[in-house]
């Protein structure tokens, strides 16, 4: 069994900052990469940022220059530093991880989601 637990969401004014964290635990043999997705009401879930264990990153165009993803491999934790937040960043943010778990093998695991609300 693998679990992803997110923290750090909340309410912030436009222009402000928030830092999300997500920690993976359970029967983990190896993590290939982790990432953040978001889903606004009535919208499809979209990739925000992803990172491999080697540190290669990928960002949605809408967050480039404002958000930074990082990973602590020793803690199986991924972070998302969100600066210069805009009202359109309001969404539920979900953590995702590609994990090799014993005995199930490769899994794409999801966290429960954390709400980020940006007031304009």
Provide a descriptive summary of the structure in words.
- The protein is mainly β and 120 residues long.
- The strands form two sheets. Strands 2, 4, 5, 6, 9, 10 and 11 form a seven-stranded mixed beta sheet that branches. Strands 1-3-8-7 form a four-stranded antiparallel beta sheet, with no helix packed on it.
- It contains no helices and eleven strands.
- Strand 5 and strand 6 (57-59) form a beta hairpin.
- The model has no long low-confidence stretch (mean pLDDT 96).
- It has strands spanning 2-7, 10-13, 18-26, 28-39, 46-52, 57-59, 67-72, 77-82, 91-101, 105-110, 114-119.
- The termini are far apart.
- The relative contact order is 0.33.
Features:
11 strands, four-stranded antiparallel beta sheet, 120 residues, 0% helix, mainly beta
Q: Could you estimate the helical fraction of the residues in percent?
A: under 10%
- For the secondary structure, the number of strands is 11
Compute the number of helices.
0
Strand/helix succession: EEEEEEEEEEE
- Give the rounded overall mean pLDDT: 96
Residue windows where pLDDT falls under 50 for at least 5 positions: none
Secondary structural class: mainly beta
User: What is the radius of gyration?
Assistant: 14 Å
Q: Please give the largest β-sheet.
A: 7 strands, mixed
Strand fraction: over 45%
Coarse shape: elongated
In whole angstroms, how far apart are the ends? 40 Å
Concise synopsis of the structure shown:
With 120 residues, the chain is an all-beta fold.
Layout of strands and helices, then pairs:
Elements: E1 2-7, E2 10-13, E3 18-26, E4 28-39, E5 46-52, E6 57-59, E7 67-72, E8 77-82, E9 91-101, E10 105-110, E11 114-119
Parallel strand pairs: 2-11
Antiparallel strand pairs: 1-3, 3-8, 4-5, 4-9, 5-6, 7-8, 9-10, 9-11
